[in-house]
Amino acid sequence: MAIKVYGSMISTATLRVLLCLAEKDLDYELIFIDLATGEHKSPHMLSNNPFGQIPAFEDGDIKLIESRAIMQYIVRKYADKGTELMSSDPKKMAEQSVWMEVESQKFEPATTKLIWELCMKRFLFGKKGDDAVVAELLPALGRLLDVYEARLSESKYLGGDGFSLADLYHVPVIKFLTEAETKMKKLFHARPHVSAWVTDVLSRPACLKVFCKHAYCKGG
Amino acid sequence: MAIKVYGSMISTATLRVLLCLAEKDLDYELIFIDLATGEHKSPHMLSNNPFGQIPAFEDGDIKLIESRAIMQYIVRKYADKGTELMSSDPKKMAEQSVWMEVESQKFEPATTKLIWELCMKRFLFGKKGDDAVVAELLPALGRLLDVYEARLSESKYLGGDGFSLADLYHVPVIKFLTEAETKMKKLFHARPHVSAWVTDVLSRPACLKVFCKHAYCKGG
Q: Known PROSITE patterns for this protein (chains A, B) (predicted)?
């Protein structure tokens, strides 16, 4: 049975899962859920995801939610395919885990409102974000990126020398934030090691494949 | 070399790590970091944790931050000791991962401000929390616990039949929220399966050991 992902290309969590499937060279079916009409809160989707969120994921009889958990499942289940993404060496895995958690606990909270203002308002309602809210949020993200700059001056990728889930977790948010707004782009590219990392992760074949495959700007 | 944890017993993140060490029957040294004086932002601690937070963790030459990453490291490194906490079966591990992520993405954000109002203000400054803020936060936590109730009516623990990191991640916050305030206690215990789960996880020997060993209420 094919892998099914219920989601939308304007959902960073959905994109996270699709990028992981692409890194693993796995085929999948994307079933479009329309956030604009609240389809993610429909009885059908609530039976897939009791939190009324996307994505929901199916692989045969396995049904999962939470993008990061889905990605870890994919990496473990299809260990012999595509990019490794999680090391089997406990010490290396520990480093990767730290930066997976940093994304989850620091980067995601620092960028959620920015994604809403700068991307989701435009995608869903064709509206411009609130400049004042954005300006208020930028300094904290800047301070966070200073820690990333220090980390990436020591190792090419967040989790060490190799590209891993620690990097991949960040990609959809970085993609959205660095393409739409000049100020945001400057925030990332003002830091040389962060800048090189952003350019690197966004130019990976899996990333190009996912973003070319689906016309996310059109809400599809 | 002994395992070292730099942290404080009033930090839920520190407690998470200590509970994991106790579940694994591992000895450790707790080096007290005084949040009240801002010691976690000192140059020494910033060299251990660039985010200026606790805990920081050392096991020989391994230095880690982020409580959940530390716990995963402990579970992998000391797989043959104490409670299993992460399954080696990919399907079971996938279920556990989902609820580890639910804690991280849903439970933690829903309870962070409550912990601040109900516990940290008291621990750090001897002050009472803001009742209005607490009242505003309770309905969202109630709705979240409804999903937990449904889950725990299907399986004894969040990640399946066995106690795992998915449960353990929640324990310090539950401990703080259910012992201090009657309203909070009611919120958990009004749901029979959540109530049984709370009673179960708080009465585990590791939990009793950690909370008896260190007098966290006295800021030690």
A: GST_CTER, GST_NTER
